[in-house]
Write a structure and sequence with these properties.
By secondary structure, the protein is an alpha+beta fold. The chain has eight helices and 24 strands. The protein has two domains: about 5-130 and about 200-305, Thrombin, subunit H, CATH 2.40.10.10; about 310-395, Roll (Pdz3 Domain), CATH 2.30.42. It has helices spanning about 50-60, 95-100, 105-125, 150-155, 290-295, 295-300, 335-340, 360-365, and strands spanning about 5-15, 20-30, 125-130, 135-140, 145-150, 160-165, 170-180, 185-190, 205, 215-220, 235-240, 245-250, 260-265, 270-275, 285, 305, 310-315, 315, 330, 345-350, 355, 375-380, 385-390, 390-395. The strands form six sheets. Strands 3-4-5-8-7-6 form a six-stranded antiparallel beta barrel. Strand 4 (about 135-140) and strand 5 (about 145-150) form a beta hairpin. Helix 1 crosses helix 3 (about 105-125).
Amino acid sequence: MINDFIFYPFIKTFRKKGFRLSLSLYRTNKPSPPFAGTPLKGAHLNGGITRSICALFWILFILSAPNSKLAVGQDFPGNGSTAGTRVSLPAELEPLLAAGGVPQTLEQLRVLEKQQQRVANLAAKCTVSVQIGSAQGCGVIVSDSGYILTAAHVAMRPNKTAVIKLSDGRIVTATTRGLYRSVDAGLIKINEGQDGGAGWPHATLGDSNNLKPGMWCIASGHPGGYDRGRGPVTRVGRILAVENDKIVTDCALIGGDSGGPLFDIEGRLIAVHSRIGNDVADNLHIPINHYDVNWKRLAAGESWGYLDGFKPMLGVSGNQSTGVAEVLKVAPGSPADDADIRVGDTIQRFGDVPITDFHSLTKAVSDTMPGERVEVWLRRNNQSLRKVVEIGRVE
């Protein structure tokens, strides 16, 4: 997610048997906390030829993917069908590339290039820009009825209005649904009908349980924010590590890519972009199976869990058993203290949520993200006051 753009060139040089390639990338120098620039620990694939090939693909494929028609399938979950959307590998290269092997000849590299282009054609139609307020991110349409997978920190909270921009320039509205914050998974639903009755173009779902380090993958998104003249940008990389709650790849991502899709080499959706590592080519993605397993809760608009290190905090305490949210204690130096919320104040509204007791206040705070600014309406000495608090995080 991005709020402002301050870019600097990030140069990587790759060498292999006299081959040298310098590649200029960009990342935000001032990313929106807490997701851009998050330190990352994980396994790494070695080998100069791998980095050289990925670098070459960066030059070949920072492009606007041309138009392509996606087949209409079923709503998530259970949309495992690849009919009409799978981009099958050439028979002679399937054993090599599907398993993550490295092309050994220039001809094999050209075949991989063509395969990436075919996947990019599919990715362009279902990759969308997501804007909520002034914050931007990405998403991927996964059903003909307009469900969009994204990151929880992009969706922010349930029942918020989102502006969705498609690759062809159309703009539609949507509503955020559920959030599984522990893995940074979020869901959004387009409000409009099914794209003239034909169904929204969408991705075919893969299975993240079948992934292994070394496999080729293709990332799509809107780095730096939506640009209709450019369209979604695709980048090629490989899987570095596979864990239950995250996939690590060397697909180069920057601010604005959060929530975008990650595809396997045959065009199946396998993950959603979550966080950017210290290195522009060392990034975390949410495995697709987390959305499948938790689909009913996400579609119902539930919000649960916390991403490690990012539990929101207001800094007040009160009596949970009374019928009002009266503040009994304010932690010194907390967000509430900074916003001049005092002992004895009765909080009546938190953002757009009416507060009836301390339990409802606790729930409202839990639905925010650290760094988010929220209007708080309270009662003090028979006066109604408005305060603006910047949500902190539990250390």
